[in-house]
Design a protein that fits this description.
By secondary structure, the protein is of the alpha/beta class. The chain is built from twelve helices and 16 strands. The strands form four sheets. It has a seven-stranded mixed sheet, sandwiched between helices. A four-stranded antiparallel sheet has the order 12-14-16-15. A hairpin with a 2-residue loop joins strand 8 and strand 9. Helix 1 (27-39) packs antiparallel against helix 9, helix 2 packs parallel to helix 9 and helix 10 packs antiparallel against helix 12 (386-407). The longest helix is centred in the last third of the chain and has 32 residues, at 260-291. It is globular, with a radius of gyration of 22 Å. The termini are far apart.
């Protein structure tokens, strides 16, 4: 049984848990990984006669989970993004639209191909600004849509806009594995969906990722790009040989395969994912309830059409000065609560903003800057109990109130 952090109540309450401690890998995953280690066939194409690789089985299971026809398991979520761009034929110098509120691997995947990221604004709901997107769609033929920190925009409207403009959509689902909009799983609206299994995502293999699509040609290109050589027939969630005949001699090998060890760790986690999503959302709602009505703090109201996965929570301190926000961060940290701030002028750990990426020059975006400056972010690992979440909310509420009253 997981032990939960204790609290100190001699003066002000303090949280003593870790915001980066994950739950252990399921015992079934550990046993499967040990079996792979014992036989030594970690490479996905190194199989014994009659054996099906763990990676091929995982691809088949993840395709079924998302409802996709095809799935390719790869080395990382970032690799999946780059692979998707290559599969769509993005060329050096080509403009690719993406969110201004995202993480560095998204514009990084675009720039790694020599393509040019063009940023689209963010709303107070922390989703892509669809009016800004509509104005910028004529610039590009590809949108790399980041469902940043698990927030889904109105995907019906977005796809109507993109379809009308002839723009292909790649969905970055690093934070939305298991989420859905109006019943359609995240990653299944556009041409390609990309997912991550990095430690802080919804399944944990250290690094890893998936690419899913219903398009046979895109899937065949992705398999060849991932480094299948001519062993594509060993995939269970890939198109038939006729699709590979069209692409196998003209698609470069940009090796980024997942291995059987990571696949063995992930298969039991995939089976557990629906139950884990419910646990994350219980924790999200506990923190949300504790923060609701805090003066100076704006919560993100989740739409009824969105089935989200609350592995992190965000709130806004709109129009606060940077000095007041830094004071809030320091006060919360002193009480054991680790908040990340996406509005800082310099990147810190994983936080950064569109004007941090100097390889992708952009025009100023004042309305977006106002929102980015006010974004607070906090992980909600499943090692937290519901009592922990209530305590964390009390601490944040108290410190927001204190700083807000001082500034009033």
């Amino acid at each position: 049984m997981t032990e939960h952090p204790k609290t100190e109540t001699l003066t002000a309450e303090r949280f003593t848990g870790s915001f980066t401690q994950q739950e252990p890998i399921p015992e079934a995953g550990i046993a499967a990984a040990l079996e792979v280690l014992r036989h030594g066939r970690l490479h996905r194409y190194n199989t014994a006669p009659g054996e099906t690789a763990e990676t091929a089985l995982l691809e088949q299971e993840f395709a079924a989970f998302t409802g996709a026809r095809y799935c390719v398991a790869v080395a990382s979520g970032g690799y999946a993004l780059g692979c998707a761009l290559r599969a769509l034929g993005v060329q050096p110098g080509e403009t690719v639209l993406t969110n201004a509120f995202t993480l560095a691997p998204v514009p990084g995947a675009i720039a790694s191909l020599g393509a040019v990221p063009a940023f689209v604004g963010v709303t107070e709901d922390l989703v892509i600004d669809l009016d800004d997107l509509a104005a910028k769609l004529p610039q590009a033929r590809v949108l790399m849509l980041s469902h940043m920190r698990g927030h889904l925009c109105d995907m019906d409207r977005l796809m109507a806009l993109c379809d009308a403009a002839g723009v292909q959509v790649i969905e970055d689902c690093a934070h939305t594995m298991g989420a859905a909009w109006n019943g359609t799983p995240s990653g299944r609206h556009g041409a390609i969906g990309c997912y991550s299994t990095q430690t802080y995502k919804h399944m944990n293999s250290g690094e890893g990722g998936f690419l899913v699509t219903d398009d046979a040609d895109l899937a065949a290109r992705a398999v060849m790009l991932s480094g299948s050589y001519m062993l594509y027939e060993r995939h269970l969630a890939a198109p038939g040989p006729e699709a590979f005949e069209r692409v196998k001699y003209v698609t470069p090998n940009v090796s980024g395969r997942m291995d059987n060890l990571r696949a063995a760790l992930l298969r039991p986690q995939l089976a557990d994912l629906p139950a884990q999503i419910d646990r994350w959302n219980d924790r999200y709602r506990a923190v949300e309830a504790g923060l609701r009505g805090t003066p100076g703090l704006t919560l993100i109201e989740r739409p009824a059409a969105e089935r989200f996965v609350g592995s992190s929570i965000q709130a806004l301190v709109l129009d606060w000065s940077p000095e007041a926000i830094r004071q809030l961060l320091a006060r919360c940290a002193a009480r054991g609560v680790e908040l990340k701030w996406f509005g800082g002028r310099e990147p810190v750990a994983f936080t950064s903003r569109y004007d941090s990426w100097r390889y992708a020059p952009s025009e100023p975006m004042p309305a977006t800057d106002r929102i980015l400056t006010g974004i607070l972010d906090m992980r909600l690992p499943l090692t937290f109990s519901l009592d922990d979440c209530a305590l964390i909310a009390r601490i944040i509420r108290a410190e927001v109130s204190a700083v807000y009253q001082q500034a009033a």
